[in-house]
Amino acid sequence: MIKVLMISILLISLALAGCAGMSDTEQRALSGVALGVAGGAIVGALAGSVGLGAAIGGAVGAGGGYLYGKHEESKQESYQQGYKAGQQSQ
Fold first, then answer.
1. Dist. CA 37–CA 35, nearest whole Å
2. Which among 22, 28, 35, 82 would be 20 to 30 A from 46, CA to CA?
3. Which of 12-26, 29-43, 61-75 has the highest mean pLDDT?
4. What sign has the CA pseudo-torsion 9, 10, 14, 15?
5. What's the CA gap between 9 and 34, in Å, rounded?
6. From CA 30, how far away is CA 36, in angstroms rounded?
7. Where are the domains of the chain?
8. Using an 8 Å Cβ cutoff, are 12 and 36 in contact?
């Protein structure tokens, strides 16, 4: 279990180091994967299957991170549209 946890931490660290050229949504999705894999591995270790827990956690984390990123993009786009409309009305 310690080996799997250490490998998971190493992979997460390497993945997060590569975020420099990504959009905000891509970064959030990758962060979701990292957190999901870590959480899934821990729950999987308790339940008896680290690999399956990590895989499920990663998939759920990726989906959640992506959806949250799109939500934040939508908020920012709405803000910018309102700001431009306010500037034009003056």
1. 6
2. 28
3. 61-75
4. negative
5. 9
6. 10
7. 2-88
8. no
Q: Are 53 and 40 in contact (CB under 8 A)?
A: yes
Query: Is the pLDDT confidence value at 3 over 70?
Result: yes
pLDDT tens column, 4-15: 777 777 777 776
Q: Pick from 5, 3, 71, 2: which is nearest to 38 by CA?
A: 5
Three-state DSSP at 84 gives helix
Confidence (pLDDT) at 16: 65
Identity (one letter) of the amino acid at 67? L
Tokens in use for 11?
Answer: 């992979």
CB 37 within 8 A of CB 13: no
